[in-house]
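Ferredoxin hydrogenase small subunit
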Amino acid sequence: MKRIVTISRRSFLKTAGIAVGYMVLGFNLTKQAVAATMEFIGLRQKSVYEADSKVYKIRKSQENPMIKKIYDKKHGFLHEGPCGHMSHRLLHTNYYDRSARVKALEEKGVKLAI
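Predicted structure tokens:
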């Protein structure tokens, strides 16, 4: 004997309302837990940055004297600036999709250890 449960529209809305109520109440508790976690993460980040500032004298790449020499307007190798053609060509990477070539090798029976 097979039973089919039928539910009226009014019962469905009542059940959905109760479910949403539980989600909202649960959300408030979750919100407090997330806030406590974010506070902990903030304290952790602050301590890491303070420790780094004590250990490392140069913390930003643009403050590095060697980088400043490379980009020097008169004698620097990349004298056209950080966004110039040569710096873009030398310092940026390009993506080449090689999946078709790899698939062709695998179809030939070549086993690749990646």
